[in-house]
Write a structure and sequence with these properties.
430 residues, Rossmann fold, 2 domains, five-stranded mixed beta sheet, 15 helices, binds histidyl-adenosine monophosphate
């Protein structure tokens, strides 16, 4: 560090890869949140809010020690008082399962739940990939499926439609089998790859012994043909996993959902079994996965709970907002009116008027901070409001408002009695 390092002398900056969502960007976020919430509720999923910090072992035991997330992407720190290792959550599923076990959520009946919020992974930031990012996360706890697996995919298809991005995304599904199928497969993979070690990069060579499945996930172009020829999990499924996968396909076919079976789809977290799926787009460059999830029937047990089948997904909100923006969807809610006021008498009246209009259900911005008429009118215009409602000395004396149309042309400004304003708005503001 030197004297000009921003953190010691100059303006403080946000942490790299951790972004603001400023007011100009917020409408798309709110639109996404509102739409998702509506769709999730339609399917009976109930909201829960989770802590952002969890004990580190929770993630090590669930996501898996040999995954990228646990190996190198977690923000972990020691609690100064207790000495306990804590971690900013890199994902929500482990915490939700922890909460479900801790509060016996599935004791009486299965639960459909969802949450949203920030997650933290120390990745190299680029378009669509950040260190603090946000997920919509939905889980069905205590359901053996495959109907519920299909339900979540159908729900996402509905969300894409509601957001108007259904033409930008496609669905990939796969089955990674049950633990016994995976053990057999895991043994077959190193045998295959060890005959081709010369082609494997350092990461892959290391994974031969730690997590050979993850070799299949490599994006290294030099390894693609070897990966392409590797044995496929889908061809080695046991009977139960096979029946489950066939069931999922049947449900999706019935629902009219198009999908591609991607036998290379393995996901980056260790807790999955059977169904895995991803919705991908080709509009965002390298970071094309907008949602990913699957079944994790063993996770409750590995975190100390009773065996509880479960399935869920998370969708990356930044990526969805990028898609929405790309589609030029401007969900920009603007106030109906901006209240401009000058003179003490007008200012005294205008507060009550603003509250009365809000009581009537209108979105109203009341000018604050003083200033001349001209500068207030500029702000009225910038607010996106449809009307400026102007109260100066004359209007205050006469108990009237001067109404100016800010968006539509062909309207003269006019004077409306304050008492008749709500009726006037109801007549014109349709
Ligand atoms: P995941 O595939 O790690 O799954 O993440 C889900 C989604 O979060 C990704 O498809 C992507 O859209 C978004 N995402 C992940 N990392 C980043 C990042 N660094 N920057 C921006 N977006 C990102 C999970 O997290 C599982 N917990 C999903 C799940 C829920 N499985 C079962 N239930």
């Amino acid at each position: 560090m030197n004297d000009t390092t921003p953190s010691t002398r100059g303006t403080l900056q946000a942490v790299r890869g951790m972004n603001h969502i400023l007011p100009d960007d917020a409408p798309l976020w709110l639109h996404l949140e509102d739409t998702a919430r509506r769709v999730f509720e339609q399917y009976g999923y109930r909201f829960l809010r989770m802590p952002v910090v969890e004990p580190t072992p929770l993630f090590v035991r669930s996501i898996g020690e040999a995954t990228d997330v646990v190996e190198k992407e977690m923000y972990s720190f020691e609690d100064k008082l207790s000495g306990e290792s804590l971690t900013l959550r890199p994902e929500a599923t482990a915490g939700i399962v922890r909460a479900a076990i801790q509060h016996s959520l599935t004791y009486e009946r299965p639960q459909r739940v969802w949450t949203h919020g920030p997650m933290f992974r120390h990745e190299r930031p680029q378009k669509g990939r950040y260190r603090q990012f946000h997920q919509l996360n939905l889980e069905a706890l205590g359901f053996a499926g495959p109907d519920v697996d299909a339900e979540q995919i159908v729900l996402l298809a509905r969300l894409w439609k509601a957001l108007g991005i259904e033409d930008c995304v496609t669905l990939k599904i796969n089955s990674i089998g049950d633990p016994a199928d995976r053990r057999a497969y895991r043994e077959a993979l190193p045998a295959y790859f060890s005959h081709r070690v010369d082609v494997l990069d350092d990461d892959a060579q290391r994974r031969l012994s730690t997590n050979p499945l993850r070799i299949l996930d490599s994006k290294n172009p030099a390894m693609q043909s070897v990966i392409e020829d590797a044995p496929r999990m889908l061809e080695q499924l046991g009977t139960d996993a096979r029946t489950h996968f066939d069931g999922l396909r049947q449900w999706l076919d019935r629902a009219g959902i198009a999908y591609e079976i991607d036998t290379r789809l393995v996901r980056g977290l260790d807790y999955y079994n059977r169904s895995v799926f991803e919705w991908v787009t080709d509009r965002l460059g390298a970071q094309g996965t907008v949602a990913g999830g699957g079944r994790y029937d063993g996770l409750f047990e590995s975190l100390g709970g009773k065996p509880t089948p479960a399935c869920g997904f998370a969708a990356g909100m930044e990526r969805l907002v990028l898609l929405l923006r790309e589609n030029e969807q401007k969900a920009a809610p603007a106030p109906l009116a901006y209240l401009v006021h000058q003179s003490d008498a007008a200012t005294a009246l205008v507060w009550r008027l603003a509250e009365t209009l809000r009581d009537a259900g209108h979105d109203i911005v009341l000018h604050a901070g003083g200033g001349g008429m001209k500068s207030q009118m500029k702000k009225a215009d910038a607010s996106g409001a449809r009307f400026a409602l102007i109260l100066a000395e004359d209007e205050a004396r006469d108990h009237t408002v001067t109404v100016k149309w800010l968006r539509e042309t062909g309207h003269e400004q006019q004077t409306v009695p304050i008492d008749g304003l709500i009726a006037w708005l109801a007549a014109v503001a349709v």
